[in-house]
Write a structure and sequence with these properties.
alpha/beta, 6-stranded parallel beta sheet, 40% helix, 3-stranded parallel beta sheet, TIM Barrel, 247 residues, binds fe (ii) ion, globular
Length: 247
């Protein structure tokens, strides 16, 4: 079968990073789009999809409670549409001044075994990064650093990458970035990080069916990318909620 997630390509059955959770009362077209993304994942053979809405001070409407409420509504819509995807909800936590108190109050939506997705600022290393990482680890969380390929100050700083890895952080690739969505410098950085075996997990980072199609087409066209992706031991399976895994 000629799509990226299939067994003869990268063989991933769990999507761990996408932005498709509708807001309550949103334009029905957005919900239709989101259901369309899930249908595409189902067609690709993916069985579990984690939605990862952004939590950050500049998005006050995305709270622990509101995200869970939105997920309940969306799960009903998924069932009504007979889509056979297990929807899971976590969040992508931006490292800002608000994150520390969320950790203190244990208000984090996490993957299994307390893995938590965090997003760093694009252009500068946050002053509180070390404090946040230490606090997460001390509370028993495993930080997953989202899309390091995007971050100018991180993607070629091997000392910083190794230091974060040694502390216990995992790194997650966004396939939309390999598809050229944010430019060639990001593609080159992702390729370099893949070659250096930095990544532990892979997600799409997709917001729409169109982006999924772009990912599939662009990456399948590039044999080197396929080889690099196949040669990386992504650990997405540990978050799979397939029936086989639940036994
Ligand atoms: Fe994201």
């Amino acid at each position: 079968m000629n799509y990226l997630f299939s067994r003869n390509k990268i063989n991933i059955d769990t999507e761990i990073h996408c932005h498709i959770l509708p807001t309550v009362g949103c334009d029905p077209e957005f919900t239709n789009q989101a259901l369309g993304v899930l249908k595409t994942f189902q067609y690709y053979g993916v069985n579990t999809v984690y939605v990862t809405p952004h939590v950050r001070l500049t998005r006050p409407s995305n709270t622990h409670k509101s995200i869970l409420e939105r997920a309940e509504v969306f799960k009903k819509q998924i069932t009504e549409n007979k889509i056979k995807i297990k929807l899971e909800v976590v969040a992508e936590y931006y490292v800002d001044e608000g994150l520390s108190s969320l950790i203190d109050n244990e208000l984090l939506l996490t993957y299994p075994q307390s893995h938590v997705l965090i997003e760093l600022p694009m252009r500068f290393k946050p002053d509180n990064l070390d404090e946040i990482i230490k606090k997460l680890l001390a509370k028993g969380y495993t930080p997953i650093i989202a899309h390091p390929e995007l971050h100018h100050y991180l993607r070629y700083d091997w000392k910083m990458i190794v230091d974060l890895k040694n502390q216990g952080c995992l790194f997650q690739l966004n396939l939309i970035n390999m598809a050229g969505y944010f430019g060639e410098d990001v593609v080159a950085a992702a390729e370099n990080l893949l070659r250096s075996k930095i990544y532990d997990l892979v997600g799409t980072g997709a917001h729409s069916r169109e982006q999924l199609r772009l990912i599939n087409e662009q990456i399948l066209q590039n044999k080197n990318f396929i080889i690099l992706l196949r040669n990386t031991n992504f650990k997405n399976k540990m978050f799979s909620k397939s029936e086989q895994n639940e036994r």
